[in-house]
Amino acid sequence: MKMSKKRLAIIGVVIVIIVAIGMYPVFSKKLLRSSDPNTLTIYALAYNGKLNYDIEAIVNGFKQKYPNIKLNIVKFNLDGGGYEKYNEKILSDTLAGGGPDIIYFNPEETNARAFQKSGMLEDLKPYIEKDKDFNKEDYNSKLLNAGMYKGKLTFIPTDYCIPSYITTKELLDKNNIKITENISQNDFMQSLSGYISNAKSSNGKTLFAKSLNIGDFIASSGFECVDYENKKMYFDTKEFKDIMENYKKIYNSTPKPATSESGEEGLQGIKNRSTLFSTDQSYTCGVEFFESESTIKGLTGQTQVINSFPTYNGGNKTIAIAEDLIGMSKTTLNKKAAYDFIKIALSEKIQCDNRGYTPPINKKSQIDIKNKYLNEEVGKNDKENKVILNKLSDDFNKYYDRVTNNIDEVRILDTNVDKLIKECMTPYFENKSSYDSALKTLENKVKLYINE
User: Fold this and answer.
1) 409-411 and 319-322: which strand pairing?
2) I need a surface site. Which of 40, 42, 216, 239 has the fewest CB within 10 A?
3) Residues 61, 67 contacting (CB under 8 angstroms)
4) What are 204-222's pLDDT values in tens digits?
5) 424/403 Cα distance (integer angstroms)
6) Domain 10-160+323-352 is found in CATH 3.40.190.10
7) What is the pTM of this model?
8) PANTHER family, from UniProt (predicted)?
């Protein structure tokens, strides 16, 4: 389910919910749920008929362990607009009381809050508590319980990312920038003020090589803008204003979103010294994560610095963003089988197999993936970048230990709210509106959204 992460319109979600609930009697017969209790229905992304790598590993693992349970797999082909259809159907069909038994989705594409508010997700907490074979010590408790809503565990992340950046010691030294371990967001931005004042399109200098997602930046601060359970907003606060002021500085010293990106803008920017920070996902939390140090050293001769964005209050806290989420429909006919499928998805072996993103939430898998790089990749020649892959430095090991073993908070993004913040605050970022005017517009729109 790993694709680019930026869609979902609020109006679309509202229409889907209204239509799904209002039209249920009309089209319930057409929903694709099997009536056989020994069959689990799963919606899955596919390419040329072949299951996407993440769901394929889970399906194969489940079939091997539970051969008596049939899987009714409804495929949505990526090469035929299936990604959008998948995200739409998994929500609308579930809200209508049908759809798949297993709810597996990306919260940046399908609205997690709509699932939770609907009451259509089974509470996973009792299953875990009664399961003597499920070792909760294999998971960070904050990650395992990220899907709690009104006392119920509605879903569990299968993986997560840390909003983070890459730079080099040489770039920081050259620009006289000192970033301490416990630095706050305000102090972090203050330390960059000299660089920002010189970062102009006319001289080709940028703070970040490509635009920074406003939702990721707010999440990394540790500040909660909305209390969904109590329908409260916290926009009219000093914290939010400071965060917006800081983002405005980034917004005006960083390129605007491009229609197409290579995914290596940051790497190239560091290589030619035109940028200070890279947020290339493949290197900060993706397939090139463990290779990032060797790539930076091999292509630039510089020493990589990788770190998470500082929180608003500082203190070296680690904020994670949940990626894919998995749960089960409350109406599934075989809840034990559905729970077993979720257990397979969270197991050590499956969390290691064919993984394109790191880290998974299983602690053993986190160690396995790192050891696989050390045992199988170190010393080899990376043919794409033509560099030798080296052992991980002490600094990198320290960082990896922190972002896997010391997660302080977990955020589930609501791209609807993020889009509203971007839409309403951009006039302020571009000096076309006052802060108070932009804030008032934002509060009015978010108030309508959370009270729908």
Assistant:
1) parallel
2) 239
3) no
4) 899 999 999 999 999 999 9
5) 32
6) yes
7) 0.89
8) ABC TRANSPORTER SOLUTE BINDING PROTEIN-SUGAR TRANSPORT, ARABINOSE-BINDING PROTEIN-RELATED
| Superfamily holding 161-318+412-450 | Periplasmic binding protein-like II (3.40.190.10)
Does the pLDDT value for residue 133 go beyond 80?
A: yes
- C-alpha separations of 88 from 19, 307, 450 in Å: 12, 35, 20
Q: How far apart are CA 48 and CA 78, in angstroms?
A: 8
Residue bearing tokens 């790993």: 2
Whole-number pLDDT of residue 60: 95
How many whole angstroms from its chain centre is CA 137?
23
Outline which parts of the chain fall under CATH 3.40.190.10: 10-160+323-352, 161-318+412-450
Residue pLDDT, tens place only, 166-205 = 999 999 999 999 999 899 999 999 999 999 998 876 678 9
Backbone angles phi, psi at 295, to 5 degrees: -65, -45
pLDDT score, position 1? 56
What sign does the CA torsion over 188, 192, 193, 194 have? positive
Give me the DSSP letters along 85-123: HHHHHHHHHHHTT-S-SEEEE-TTTS-HHHHHHHT-B--
Q: Each residue of 334-344: pLDDT tens digit?
A: 999 999 999 99
Sheet holding 319-322, edge to edge: 160-161, 319-322, 409-411
Residue 251: strand, helix, or coil: helix
Cα distances (Å, whole numbers) of residue 184 to 136, 243, 395, 403: 32, 11, 20, 18
Cα separation, 272 vs 300, in Å, equals 8
Alpha helix segments (H runs only) across 277-334: 281-284, 292-300
Q: Which amino acid is at 375?
A: N
The torsion region of residue 81 among left (phi > 0), alpha (psi -120 to 50) and beta comes to left
CA distance 206 to 195: 9
- Look up residue 428 and give its amino acid: Y
Q: Judge whether residue 324 has pLDDT over 70.
A: yes
Residue 270 CB partners (closer than 8 Å, separation 6+)? 166, 167, 168, 171, 209, 278, 296, 300, 302
